[in-house]
From TrEMBL:
UniProt entry keywords in alphabetical sequence: Signal
Tagged with keyword Transmembrane: no
N-terminal signal peptide: 1-19
Name of this protein: DUF2147 domain-containing protein
Sequence ranges assigned to domain DUF2147 in this UniProt record: 23-137
Stretches of the chain forming a coiled coil according to its record: none
Amino acid sequence: MRKLLFTLALSLASVMSFAQIEGKWRTIDDETGKPKSIVEIFKKTDGKYYGKVIQLLIKPQNPNCVDCKDDRKDKPILGMEVIRGLKKDGDEFNGGTITNPKNGKTYKCFATRNGDKLTVKGYIGISLIGKTQTWEKVD
């Protein structure tokens, strides 16, 4: 009986961890298909999720976000908060924004996790039109 309860508890814990997005994620460059950066996603006291660039794997043409329009303008990409305000909604995280430091544009964002993959979609208007990336979990 103890083994059954232990197995059940482990199974429940592993299933719940797949619904979480906190941790470090390797982003992939759309053009080259190579790893681009490591983004750490964390939960703030407001209960929302945020992600910041903690490592650059490809040296950017400009180390600062010169085209950003908000408080990130001319700030270093390394350490920049690129995801802001995601809220957990079942197995999906939505209601936030993602900023592309390369062009400074900010998009609505949602993310879903499937094992060691995080699907992140940035879009304008409706989510049917946008760009999707798959990020990989970093241990």
